[in-house]
Amino acid sequence: MIPGVSSRRRFSDLSEQEILALAISSEEDDAQIYRSYAARLRGEYPGSAAVFDGMAQEEDQHRRRLIELHQARFGDVIPLIRREHVAGFYARRPVWLVKNLSLDTIRDEAAAMERQAEAFYRRAAAQTADAATRKLLGDLAAAEAGHEHRADELQGEHLGETARTEEDHAARRQFILTWVQPGLAGLMDGSVSTLAPIFATAFATQNSHTTLLVGMAAAVGAGISMGFTEAAHDDGVLSGRGSPIKRGLASGIMTALGGLGHALPYLIPDFWTATTLAMVVVFFELWAIAWIQNKYMDTPFLRAALQVVVGGALVFAAGSLIGAG
């Protein structure tokens, strides 16, 4: 290999034998990905796991038909060629990332896989002269195009309306536990707890630059603290709250954003203009918290608004009084 020159083959340069070998390895990979999806989902979503088991079996059938054709035309020795050996060829998401995918994302990934496979078979058929090979590749393109219908059939067999509803509910619950709850706690902490130090500094110094520094330090420090605390206090195994890294990121980032929201207005040199804008930002932060509580936590909006507004007002008043004193 010459340094700086890609070793990948162009698809147009592949022989018919290599196209068949590429199709065989691609079907093997896709079947394994579907089985990995099934293994990932089996505990929480057994119906969806059965659907992906069925899709893996479909890919196995495609692979067997391709191997039979290769044996008839070229013999038993199949060239070693995979997606990563072909320039511009579509890539699959690495299997080890499956653990980081939600149920809806896995479904979307599977649909994208079928569309990409259909496009490959149509392109491969157009590049093939042998009638039997061209027919098989065209049939497989049609099969991939029809997999959406087949997936619907499999869902009908393994995933009835009740089971699908239950799985969607479980997926939403997991999303709330892993992302929404830690993020909401972080946003509340960052938005409310930083009010006192920021506005105490603001009214004590009436200096935008000093207030900005204190506000950024408070927001970033609170974000780091909340993030590590969330990640460290619960590994998610027994509680079922999901990955501690995800929860830590959600909590830490939202805490920092909550504090930075009313600290960044002090980039404005004029103190009273910056303070007025910071108060407006606080208003929207508190209403955003109330909206999230209402949407995801089923808290009545008025009650959520009353809680955050009263709490925020008390902290703001405490900071203002301390700063004015």
Quick synopsis:
The protein has 325 residues and is mainly α. It is 75% helix and 1% strand.
How many runs of DSSP E, i.e. beta strands?
2
Query: How far from one another are the termini?
Result: 74 Å
User: In percent, how helical is the residue content?
Assistant: over 70%
Number of helices: 11
Tell the overall outline. Answer: elongated
Instruction: Please report which band the strand proportion falls in: under 5%, 5-15%, 15-25%, 25-35%, 35-45% or over 45%.
Output: under 5%
In round numbers, the mean pLDDT is 81
How many separate domains? Answer: 2
- In this structure, how is the largest beta sheet organized? 2 strands, parallel
| Side-by-side strand order of the widest sheet | 1-2
Order of helices and strands: EHHEHHHHHHHHH
C-alpha Rg (nearest Å): 28 Å
- Structural category is mainly alpha
Uncertain stretches of 5 or more adjacent residues: 1-6
Structural summary, described in words:
This protein has 325 residues and is mostly helical. It folds into 2 domains: 9-159, Ferritin; 171-324, no CATH class. Helix content is 75%, strand content 1%. The protein is built from 11 helices and 2 strands; from the N terminus they run E-H-H-E-H-H-H-H-H-H-H-H-H. The protein has a two-stranded parallel ribbon with strand order 1-2. Helix 6 (161-193) crosses helix 8 (208-233) and helix 6 (161-193) runs parallel beside helix 11. It is elongated, with a radius of gyration of 28 Å. The protein starts with 8 loop residues before the first strand and ends with a helix. Mean pLDDT is 81; it is low at 1-6.
